[in-house]
Specification:
Number of domains: 2
Radius of gyration: 23 Å
GO molecular function, one term: ATP binding
Number of helices: 9
Order of helices and strands: EEEHEEEHHHEHEHEEHHEHEEEEEE
CATH topology of the largest domain: Rossmann fold
CATH architecture of the largest domain: 3-Layer(aba) Sandwich
Protein name: ABC transporter ATP-binding protein
Bound molecules: adenosine-5'-triphosphate
CATH class of the largest domain: Alpha Beta
Pfam families: ABC_tran
Largest sheet: 6 strands, mixed
Keywords: ATP-binding, Nucleotide-binding, Transport
Domain ABC transporter: 1-235
Length: 319
């Protein structure tokens, strides 16, 4: 089990980067750390891996405190692998040699089989003998991933693992990769600003803002309870509407409502809106409408004219 408590962390001569960040992970669980650029995601991974010294707080793996670079001759814990944004790959050797670097080389046939498996999984078979310096950014990122997986670690830290990989390849690749890691019972921590990735693959979600925790818990619970514009902004287009207008209570309190939670009603409702714009999104249209002084977003299967319609709130989480 990984148990991290970071009371405070600052780089020398700089302001506090992380403050009161803590989480617990069981073996085989996947935590996604979600947050905007500069909120401290990479710093958190570097602290966990042991590249940075944690003075205020503790990181415990299976009951044993991790002591950080001040106590380790070679920075980095041996049971963990970090796939960082600046890839840990050797540019002047081939893809296959890079992937094989951490294998123990006792049984060449077995090693070769493992390399082939990984090249296949990361769609790198065609580049087996290509020198890494000749590859694109996305291909290099896939080599770094294959290399980290060659001997599957107990804990894998992934810093924006798909940031350089095009959408076309990314969807298939990350499904394959996370399935493989789950089957290997590997504990995973990914830093990402891609909420879709966090929602699809993680068990737990930690949302950071300026180094502090904005939300932490089971991924589905964090999503369902996104009760601030900052949190909801990661997950999609939303409106902030009075409870009374969406019919959930008579209070003056407001609620965050995602676009897919509003539908056109054939009957009159308190939510009478005027359509302003329709944005094509492929599977449907995102409709921008005005309600009194505020903007309301909802989905529609077809483009809508600039007319007045009534909307109804559907709470899809309770079904
Ligand atoms: N070596 C360093 N020395 C001083 N400040 C640093 C150092 N590395 C990062 N920082 C600062 O720490 C803060 C957090 O940076 P970090 O790289 O952890 O954020 P991030 O969430 O991973 O960002 P991104 O998504 O852009 O990679 C930023 O304000 C950054 O400028």
């Amino acid at each position: 089990m990984l148990n991290a408590t970071i009371s405070s962390f600052s780089y020398p001569d700089s302001k506090t980067v992380l403050k009161e960040v803590s989480f617990k992970l069981e073996k085989g669980e996947h935590l996604a750390i979600l947050g905007e650029s500069g909120c401290g995601k990479s710093t958190l991974l570097h602290l966990l891996y042991g590249l940075l010294q944690l003075e205020e707080g503790e990181i415990i793996w299976n009951g044993k405190p991790l002591l950080g670079p001040a106590s380790n001759l070679v920075p980095g814990e041996s049971f963990m692998k970090l796939v960082a944004q600046e890839f840990n790959i050797m540019p002047f050797t081939s893809v296959a040699e890079n992937v094989a670097e951490y294998l123990n080389r006792v049984n060449p046939e077995k090693d070769n089989q493992r390399v082939n498996e990984l090249l296949d999984a990361l769609e790198l078979k065609d580049f087996r003998n290509t020198k890494v310096k000749l590859l694109s950014g996305g291909q290099k990122q896939r080599v770094a991933l294959a290399k980290a997986l060659a001997k599957t670690p107990d804990v894998l830290l992934l810093d924006e693992p798909f940031s350089n990989i095009d959408t076309f390849k990314k969807r298939n690749l990350r499904r394959k990769l996370f399935k493989y890691l789950k089957e290997s019972n590997c504990t995973i921590i990914t830093a990402t600003h891609d909420a879709e990735e966090a929602l699809q693959f993680s068990d737990k979600l930690l949302v950071l803002k300026e180094g502090g925790v904005k939300a932490y818990g089971k991924t589905k619970d964090v999503y369902k309870n996104s009760n601030t514009p900052y949190l909801a902004g990661f997950f999609g287009d939303f409106s902030v509407l009075p409870n009374a207008v969406i019919g959930i209570s008579n209070s003056l309190e407001t609620k965050i409502v995602f676009a897919h939670q509003l539908v056109i009603s054939n009957e009159k409702t308190p939510l009478k809106v005027i359509i302003k714009n329709s944005y094509f999104k492929g599977a449907n249209y995102l409709i921008e409408a005005s309600y009194k002084d505020s903007i309301v977003y909802f989905n529609s299967p077809s483009i809508l004219k600039k007319e007045t319609v009534y909307l109804r709130y559907i709470n899809d989480y309770e079904s």
